[in-house]
Amino acid sequence: MLQILKEPLTHFIFLGSLIFISYGLMPNDVEENPKEIVISKTLIQELVNGFEQTWHRQPNKEERNNLIAIRLKEEIYYREALALGLDEGDTAIRRRLKQKMEYILEDIADVVVATDEDLNTYLQQNSDKFIMVKKYSFYQVYIEPDKYGKDFNQEVIKRLEQLNKVDDLSNAYKLGDPMLLAHQFNQLSAEQVSRQLGKTFADSLKSVSKDKWQGPIRSSYGQHFVFITNVTDGGIPKLADVRKTVEREWKNEQRLKANNKIYNDLKNQYYVVIEPFSMSDNTEVKASK
User: Fold this and answer.
1) Is this model's pTM higher than 0.85 or not?
2) Which of 12, 119, 237, 246 places its Cα 20 to 30 Å from the Cα of 46?
């Protein structure tokens, strides 16, 4: 029993039910006093706040009175429309009221706070959502094979010696042949590398050691010397690295479960009759000219 009370879903459902009970206990001024309209201080303040958010200043007296007059007209028309039954059978109104009910339930998600245990459990049970791929950060220096012909291998040896003497990696590109491709890449997955430099290059990175110039390795453009500065291993990340994302997904799942549970509980309070229907019951309606 105590374990059930600790479940986040139980908290969602309890808060949702509490909100509906609270709404049910609120007095209905329209039914009790159909011809009395109270424009309260709280409502006036809400109107003023709305004005300030739009115009970035407070309304003057005339503008404030105009806000009240507009709201009063809206309230009168609203009550008269209800009295005439104009809300009945209106799909737009039905959908809007449904949305408002859903908004009430969605607000609950911001009230219930997930513990580290909740989030770690969710991360492990849904690891496929958060799996991280291996990522590479590296510098590349291009060398054009056709430019050196039979002396290419000697040129490679000479360039590697020069590159390994460079202190500032950001200047290493000056020892390469000109090309438009960037010389530094940060946190790219093998797939991202493949899209920019080709699959052969991406596959070759897997066997390249860190912190020294190596190569050349072939790409879609030609040959490159490569210096890998960092490799981020893939796999299931630590909660600290993806906490916001995990918490967002956890809340969304809890909200969906709670919404379904509350909806089913509400539905069980109704006796629902769905009359038999077949497409043959449809009568063809022709557009009038």
Assistant:
1) no
2) 12
